[in-house]
Amino acid sequence: MNNEYLIRLIHEYNPQLAGRPIDVAEFRRDLYREIEPWLTKKQAIAIVGLRRTGKTTLMRQLMSDIAHGTLFFSFDEEETQKKEVLVFVIDYAINVVHATSIFLDEIHYVDDWEGVLKRYYDQKQSKFIISGSESLEISKAKATLAGRLVTFQLDTLSFSEYLRLKGGAVPEVSAVSGDFSALEHAYHRCLSQKEYYEHEFVEYLYKGAFPELVREEDGAIIRRYIADLVVRKIIYRDIPAIFDIRRRDLLYDLFRFACSTTSGVFDIQNLSRTLAASHETVAGYLFFLRTAFLIRIAEPYSKSPAKRMRRHKKVYVAHPSIACAVLGYDRTQLTEPVLGPFVETLFSGTFFWRDKEKNEVDVVVESPVLIPVEVKYQNSISPADTKSLRRFMEIHPAKKAVLVTKNIFERRFLDGNECLLIPAWFALLTRIG
Question: Is 0.90 topped by the overall pTM?
């Protein structure tokens, strides 16, 4: 590639080189506060996450907080995704611009980028802040950059972030699940705006994954943005750029299946028959979707890793709004039967629990104490709705449970164990479960 063209790109990306300010958004993601202390440390910083969640914006904000000596470059364009381009950009940053902090966006597209960074890190003592939309490529680099790289994941917007970005009221609620009276007091403070939170919760579920959609009201635009600029770009461009994908149509069909069955238990053998593909292909494609942050997989709770591997797992789409877009849902289709699995998706964790009698607990939280979390997005809770929680606490040493509801806040006791019933919107704000 022509060096003059690269220099031109560098200056377009970096207005501060011409004495102009870096234009950054005022709103800052929660992750910003976690990363900021690492700017003064020697280690390189990696920011990974789904497309359009704001990784580039976050990098620009971090740049703007460094008084001088920064340079930014993006490898999102196919023609720049070459090792020699990366070397040229870093050499230019160090030798011409005299940058001490080098920001490299979407670096995972460049072959052997980790080897290049290791050499400059060790020899030039340069500070690198990088981003990528492929968790596998960043993870693989940890072996090469052992002790030199700290990784942060930028998730889709949390409900609290969504409310703040929209300019609405966000209650100051800390996670006080161990103190019901404190939790109750916090809930009472929110009651005057309860209808607002309930409305915005459904809006968040429908469009709240991505910062650029928070104020968008047109459902057609929301669905097109997510389906084309996020999902199709990942499936038809990003994943094939990293992995050998022979059937992109199958990859899309598999992801659409994950959207339609989010929160459901799946079996790879049945999936293989449904999609008319081999077991190995389906397993591999699920892995690719997972490394691209489009889906999450939860394992059955067990102290035995072997049992967790053998038993069926659950699949979750990264955020319900993505499923709504891929499936073509508008707001009128978000009825309670549809919302149930989507609400559970918002609370998905590493583990769920299911026994031979098909009692099932949606989420099992291990730290700091063992807590089973069940999602029942409905206005009434009967004893039958707590059967699985009771059974779990009979078998496992859990003394407290959380039941996420649509509109109920109260404390009950299940065979002597405490169970907190909490509306979904409030549970997200308290980060319980």
Answer: yes
